Backbone:
């Protein structure tokens, strides 16, 4: 199975990298980028890894932590041919509010 990253997820990654660069260093931001890509590939291999998020819309949305960055979540949908990466957000954010605005 392949994965497809939606534009908002790319923006989330860019925002997270900027935040990490400012609060840690360039290497941490680069490591986040690499870990996100590795996590997407792992989800494409095993889409059932994440837990279903009945508290978030759209129905069927799942979440899984970015490898090595336990506070960041990949929020995704599974399809017949691809895993669709919807967002990549810090877990302390108000996810129901974020996803209410994504409809």
Residues:
């Amino acid at each position: 199975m392949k994965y497809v990253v939606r534009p908002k997820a790319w923006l989330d990654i860019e925002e997270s990298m900027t935040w990490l660069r400012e609060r840690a260093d360039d290497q941490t931001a680069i490591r986040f980028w690499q870990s996100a890509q590795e996590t997407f590939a792992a989800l494409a291999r095993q889409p059932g890894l994440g837990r279903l998020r009945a508290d978030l819309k759209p129905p069927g949305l799942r979440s899984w932590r970015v490898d090595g960055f336990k506070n960041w979540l990949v929020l995704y949908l599974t399809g017949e041919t691809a895993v669709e990466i919807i967002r990549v957000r810090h877990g302390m954010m108000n996810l129901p509010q974020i996803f209410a605005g994504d409809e």
